[in-house]
Every structure is written in C-alpha cells, then in structure tokens.
Design a protein that fits this description.
alpha/beta, Rossmann fold, 14% strand, globular, disordered C terminus, NAD
Length: 348
C-alpha cells in the first residue's frame, strides 16, 4: 500500500523509514504539500502531512480524486486542514494528539534563558574574539513571576521547571490543572497574567478565541522589562503589534519559535532571497529578539513518538478503527468520529 510523507527532514527520514518502510510502499518528500504539489500524491492511499502543509478544500479534492483515503498529520495542531471539506470528500483525517511535552517545554526554557542572558549576542562576540560584557547583563529568574498561558501537558511541564527555579507561578486556562495547582500555580485572568508576569510563555492552542490573544492591548499591559516566549502557534501573537512594542523600547526580550505567517518560510532556505515579509524582517533586526524555525518539538524522543503514532493511525485506518487521534472518520456526521471543523493544538 502506498504512503507518501511530505515536509520530511533529513533527521526525520530514517525514523519514518524504520517505522513504515518495511510495511508500506513509503515515499518521503521534502516538499510542502499545497496546490502545486498535491498531484504528487496520486495513487497513494495515505498522505502523511506536516504542520506547514496547506490542506484546503482544493488540495483535499486533488488527494481524494487521486485515491487518497487517509490524511494523517505528524503534529498535534491541525488548523491547516479543512476538516469539513475532508468529511464531505470522504477522507479520514488523524493527527498525533500527544507526544513528549518536555521537548517543547524545554525548548521554551532554552529560548527564555538565551534571551535573558543575551547568549546569541555573547556567542557572536566571542567568535570575533570580543570578550567584553557590555550589554550582556541578564537577571535571575529566581523570585520572579512566570506567567503560563495554557496549562496543558506542555504548559505543566514548563511550570515544573519554573517551580524548580523558585519562581512565583501564574496561570490562565479554560480548564485549570490540578497538577499545576499542586505546583503552586495561581490561576488568574488574562489581564492580570499579562500585567504581573516577568516571563510570559504561551502554550495555548490556536482557536478563534486565542488568535492574537497577545495583541497591542495585551502588550501594553506587560511590564516594560518582561520576556515573551512563544513556542505554541504564531497566530497567538499579533506580530505587527509586537514590532511596534519593541520599537517603543519595551520588553527585555522575545523568543519566538513560531510566527503567524511562517508557512512557506520556515523549514526553507531563504538565505539567497529578499525577505518579502517586512514584519518578520523587522523582528529579526532587534538584538533582544530570538527567532527559531518551529523546532521546539524537534527532539529525537518527540519525533520518534510522532512517527510511532502516525504508524498506529495508518494501521487503525486499515483495520477500520478510530480513536483519540481520529479527527474525521468517513461516513460520520459532524461531531462524531473525532474533531470538529477546525482549530488545532499547540506543539509541532
């Protein structure tokens, strides 16, 4: 049976081939799946998509017409997939509902520590044999306030590390976590979360209610010397408002592993091109902003779990089974067989 995987990195390929290659006719492509590349899936019953693929109605129709039965996303988030169109076309859709939360939580802390202690600037200097300390002063996290927007598995893992630093913990979530409360997290409204956090880390899913949750008004509430970290979904932050905030000399630092217009940019080599996205280009000019290319999930442990779940999703589909990872099952009415018509979780 034919399986094609899109957006496959060099590090991911051996894990996919080990998990799927011995059972299925597997084709791994580094292409992003979109309207221009959808025809390459012709004759493949299963498409393994990545988070940056564009699976709108037009792409899904091409897949269905080419014989695809299942789209299984190698990620938790699925806001790039038109689930209503998939249901109408009779396509099954699955995702990876969970994997190592430590991968993203630890990466969020890597960004926070690097921004706070000016590590990228320090490394750049020492490579030029400039060993001055001017402009490199950070501050202790111990005793300061960590705000966590979204206290699911990843947010909870982030909170455990914050507790280890001896930080005061604030949280905001529609479904408070007993584990977070046991760690000392105090649940507060968003306004207070923004106003009191010295370090604000975003771990919420991207849904209509959370799009641009960090907008101009939220940024205005934040402390002038706060640090903002986003390893969840780019659309949580109004990037234009963030640029204006930084231009005003506010925020000690920002760490972004995601960006709201990252599709078609992240995961590609753009070094020989003019950066047409003016907002992203401006963000990259700030010395206190660190941007990485959606690699928070990219640990060997997490990717192995993602691949194993993807293999299970394929086996379940072939056996006619549905489960927690099923978003759309053919022949089911809306609201049955998994997720609804959109949305998406945090993580990779």
């Amino acid at each position: 049976m034919g399986v094609v995987a899109y957006g496959v990195t060099a590090d991911e390929r051996p894990l996919l081939e080990r998990a799927l290659g011995g059972t299925y006719d597997l084709r791994c492509l580094d292409l992003i799946l979109n309207r221009d590349t959808a025809a390459t899936a012709a004759g493949r019953r299963v498409v393994c998509s990545s988070v940056n693929d564009v699976l709108d109605e037009e792409v899904l129709r091409v897949l269905a017409d080419g014989g695809t039965e299942l789209v299984t996303q190698r990620a938790t988030g699925y806001n790039n997939i038109d689930l209503s169109a998939a249901r109408a076309l009779g396509l099954s859709v699955a995702r990876v509902s969970s994997y190592s939360p430590y991968a993203v939580a630890e990466f969020a802390w890597a960004l926070a520590l690097a921004v706070n202690r000016r590590i990228p600037r320090a490394v750049s200097r020492t490579r030029d044999f400039d060993f001055r300390l001017d402009g490199l002063m950070g501050r202790d996290f111990h005793g300061r306030t960590a705000g966590i927007l979204g206290t699911g598995r990843i947010g909870t893992a982030f909170a455990r590390v914050a507790a280890g630093f001896g930080m005061r913990l604030l949280g905001n979530d529609v479904a408070p976590s007993d584990e977070c409360r046991a760690l000392g997290v105090e649940y507060v409204g968003r306004d207070r979360l923004f106003a009191e956090s010295d370090l604000l880390s975003l771990h919420a899913p991207l849904v209509p209610e959370t799009r641009h949750v960090v907008d101009a008004a939220a940024l205005a509430r934040m402390k002038d010397d706060a640090i903002l970290i986003n390893t969840s979904r780019g659309g949580l932050v109004d990037a234009h408002a963030l640029v204006e905030t930084l231009l005003a000399g506010r925020l000690l630092g920002v760490g972004l592993d995601v960006y709201e217009e990252e599709a078609g940019v992240f995961f590609f080599d753009k070094s020989l091109e003019v950066m047409a996205d003016d907002t992203l280009a401006r963000l990259m000019t700030f010395g206190n902003v660190l941007v990485t290319s959606h690699q928070g999930y990219f640990s060997r442990d997490a990717v192995r779990q993602i691949v194993e779940t993807t293999a299970r999703n394929i086996a379940d589909h072939l056996a006619g089974r549905t489960g927690a990872d099923t978003l759309v099952a053919p022949g089911r009415a809306d609201g049955e067989g998994g997720g609804g018509g959109g949305g998406g979780g945090g993580g990779g």
